[in-house]
Backbone:
């Protein structure tokens, strides 16, 4: 199965994520999906925005393109 | 005979009481209803009736499946395995499965799981409608139809767990643990939906709206039960789940915006808000489960695709029924 766009990285067993500003976000589920496309509206978690950032041929669109 | 073992506390989800049997919609569902409720009728067996149309077949099958979930008030628990009812269920199941397989063959689909989903993205369904233009009454009707599944959300897939090999089994357990609240009853997705119904002024009781469920809603639920209650169909069950989860996260975000636009309360928003994040995780788990189950075997992958197709197609039909073909497309 191909996975369009830059999908998230699934991570297990973490209590929280600290971003580069030192802000911690608690992980409320046993497996979390960390955003890797930087387009998520709820960072650090994936909200499936990477799918919107693909065109119909699964090519990843560059920001501003 | 009241079931004395039913003491489980639903943790405020509103479904601690059993439900009554849905109103029959034809002679077959009427015969099933009478068989369940009347011991004297039960002693006589069940005549081999043909359903009186799709509604009759759908509500009869739904009722028979429900015996395997929470059952009904005043129906003895051991009726669950009444061979007469199992025979009717198998007859209805065979008809449903044959119809769905015919539909799948008819589209002549030769692509991958990703292709199938990509085609489905052209169908906006109900969520975009809710985001942009639905009225409060439209949303209430959508919640009523969705309640048939969401009040037993994730329950069908619990039946699949023992049928899987260790790898996919542990991943499904992970997914289900999240669906079932991660050890916190108040976070059970079904409980979140019950709270959403109550906050929207609707009845959160399990099965409260069965008599308002459309044939499309019932068939969508029946297909899921059929896949999850037949070991033979476990690949389709997981393909269905993968398609369901993969088409949930972005639409849930649309629902959040629409519900906020219309001024629905936080519990209603919270249910969909939770699914933006949760299903972004579950999508990947479910697809991995399918990949591990099939190990690349084309025949098994075809079964996964069949399940995924059934999910998308029945959701599409249900959306067309709810909001009309022009809006759903």
Residues:
């Amino acid at each position: 199965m191909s996975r369009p766009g830059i999908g998230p990285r699934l991570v297990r067993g973490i209590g929280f994520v600290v971003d580069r500003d030192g802000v911690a976000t608690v992980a409320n589920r046993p497996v979390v999906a960390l955003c890797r496309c930087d387009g998520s509206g709820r960072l650090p978690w994936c909200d499936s925005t990477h799918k919107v950032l693909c065109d119909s041929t699964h090519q990843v669109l560059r920001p501003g393109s | 005979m009241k079931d004395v073992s039913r003491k489980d506390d639903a943790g405020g989800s509103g479904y601690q009481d059993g439900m009554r049997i849905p109103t029959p919609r034809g002679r077959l569902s009427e015969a099933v209803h009478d068989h369940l409720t009347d011991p004297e009728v039960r002693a006589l067996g069940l005549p081999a009736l043909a359903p009186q149309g799709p509604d009759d077949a759908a509500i009869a099958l739904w009722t028979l499946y429900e015996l395997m979930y929470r059952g009904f008030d005043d129906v003895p628990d051991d009726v669950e395995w009444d061979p007469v009812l199992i025979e009717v269920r198998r007859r209805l199941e065979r008809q449903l499965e044959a119809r769905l397989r015919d539909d799948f063959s008819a589209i002549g689909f030769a692509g991958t799981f990703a292709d199938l989903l990509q085609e489905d993205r052209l169908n906006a369904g109900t969520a975009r409608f809710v985001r942009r233009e639905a009225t409060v009454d439209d949303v209430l009707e959508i919640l009523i139809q969705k309640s048939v599944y969401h009040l037993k959300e994730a329950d069908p897939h619990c039946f699949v767990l023992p049928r899987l090999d260790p790898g996919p089994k542990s991943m499904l357990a992970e997914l289900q643990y999240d669906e079932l609240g991660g050890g916190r009853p108040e976070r059970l997705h079904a409980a979140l939906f019950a709270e959403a119904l109550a906050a929207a002024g609707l009845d959160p009781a399990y099965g409260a709206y069965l008599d308002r469920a459309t044939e499309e809603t019932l068939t969508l639920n029946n297909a899921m039960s059929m896949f999850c209650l037949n070991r033979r169909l476990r690949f389709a069950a997981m393909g269905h789940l993968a398609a369901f989860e993969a088409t949930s996260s972005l639409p849930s975000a649309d629902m959040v915006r629409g519900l906020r636009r219309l001024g629905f309360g936080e519990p209603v928003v919270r249910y969909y808000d939770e699914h933006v994040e949760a299903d972004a995780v579950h999508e990947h788990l479910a697809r991995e489960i399918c990949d591990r189950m099939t190990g690349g075997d084309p025949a098994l992958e075809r079964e996964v695709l069949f399940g995924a197709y059934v999910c998308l197609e029945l959701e599409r039909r249900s959306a067309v029924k709810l909001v009309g073909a022009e809006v759903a497309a």
Q: What stands out?
A: The longest helix of chain A spans residues 49-52. Chain A has a mean pLDDT of 79. Strands of chain A lie at 9-12, 16-18, 24-26, 31-34.
